Amino acid sequence: MKKIILSPSIMCADLVNLEQSIRKLEQNGLEKLHIDVIDGNFSPSMPLGIETIKRMREVTNMDFDVHIMSTNNEYFIGEMINIGVQGITFHHETSLHTDRHIKLIKDSGAKAAVALNPATPISVLDYSLESLDMVCLMLINPGFATNKGEKQVPYAGRKISDLKEKITSQSLHTSIQVDGRVSLSSIPELVKYGADDLVLGSTSLFIKENSIEHNKQAVLDAIKQGQL
Question: Which residues contact 38 (CB under 8 A, 6 or more apart)?
Answer without folding.
Answer: 45, 46, 47, 69, 70, 143
